[in-house]
Amino acid sequence: MATQMARVNARQDHVRLEDGSVLLRMAQVPWTALTLPGLVGIKYKIMNFDRNRSWITMINTFEPGSRFATHKHLGMVEIYMLEGSFFYDNGQVWAGDYMSEAGGITHAPGSDDGALMITTLHGPLQILDNEGNVAATIGIDEMYDLAAENAAVGHLSATN
Fold this sequence. Notes:
The protein is mainly beta and 160 residues long. The chain folds into two domains: 29 residues, no CATH class; 119 residues, Jelly Rolls, CATH 2.60.120. The chain is built from two helices and 15 strands. A hairpin with a 5-residue loop joins strand 1 and strand 2. The chain starts with a helix and ends in an 11-residue tail after the last helix.
């Protein structure tokens, strides 16, 4: 136990404790930019995920003036806004706010002043084109693979 506590107190590395707990040093994880059209200015770091249950928790940013393409959530989304704000069809979400969106919601959020938030997606989302057709689907596999290309998954177990 003393060795384990020394590792936790060192503040150097990610730690997987014997009791199953995980301590991630998120400052060591590089930001991954979303690269699909309509997702410019949005970056994320995966904190945890479960492929079998189709959820992913991440910290993500919207750069000032960024807009997220119109998309439909196939599962619930939870957001806790740490800094800044973003807006969408139903209003504004400010720092300190928690929001839960039901699955099936279609919207196109954006941020004029930038945002930093913790987000949990319970299922994928579909990016829609101007006619409302599905242009792309983004789920856990796509988010993980994009982060892996960016060397931003070393702190995760690929089988989470």
